[in-house]
Amino acid sequence: MVAYALRRLLGAIPVILVATFVMYALVSSINDPIAQLRQSCPQCDASAYQRLNDLYNLDQPIPQRYASWLGSALTGDFGVSTSMGEQDVGPIFWERAKNSAILSIPAALIVIVFSAALSIYSALRQYSLGDYAVTGFTYLGLAMPTFFFGLLLQVFWGIWFQDWTGLKPFWTGGLHTESIGELLSSVALPITTLVIISLAADTRFGRAAMLETRNADFIRTARAKGVPERTIVLKHLLRAALIPMVTVWAITFGTLLGGTLVTETVFSWPGLGRLLIFNGVYDGDVNIMMAVILFIGVITVLFNLFADLLYGWLDPRVRYG
After folding, report:
1. Longest CA pairwise span in the chain (Å)
2. Superfamily for 90-314?
3. Using 50, 70 and 90 to split pLDDT, how confident is the model at 195?
4. What pLDDT score was predicted for residue 229?
5. How far apart are the two ends of the chain, measured CA to CA in Å?
6. Which of 60, 189, 246, 264 has a Cα at 20 to 30 A from 230?
């Protein structure tokens, strides 16, 4: 397994290099810092333009600029941010990554636990009232836009509930770290939004996987041998059905950790999603964009590798050559 993991990691390096080079070329072609400075500051002298040349090596071809950026990034130096007063990108990036993790890690763990539980319940009680309720929830969650559900939570808890009771138990925007209570109050609504939207899709997929596995030959054989139903569900059915679900969970976890733009925008959350769009794309900050893109690429590879390694534990038939 160790040899397999190393081969996968080595094989992922060219993929990440190609992906980051393509993104760097596209970002560099679309954004012209010189033109932006000329438009925003027509009175600036030649030293300002020379400063931009020094920051981004604009007098060099794109492959050479990419090689220079990559060499610095591998040492932990992501350059400086032109959109945030020429601050180092590294501290900004890690601060925003920590803020995204505050939302994504609890949300992903909740999604994993409840999607597995709801999938088992719905599959074992197919066509029951509870199954219809779970199915209705998944359809509603899939059909509801993230921004709408987030705004609905803000209106209910920030306006209606306060009008009815005079209380406001949750912050409807921003990150507040004055105390543990304030932190929990500020993360409750964004985490709920992430959980409901992700849980709907994962539960729907998990239910289908459970139903397919429930009718497999080895499940019928176990029942014919008199194996207790609880053992069949937990040891055989769940373990086999988890194989496709692990892949979905890996994608969900990586997506959440990489920053969720819509949720972070609705709740004014200072995470990677807002950093990428507002400071990176809107302000044309190449170094910020590349730092976030590199991070998303790396965690996507790592989570998919982790999912592949879990297959061998869940299914003894899987062997790593």
Report:
1. 86
2. MetI-like (1.10.3720.10)
3. very high
4. 82
5. 8
6. 246
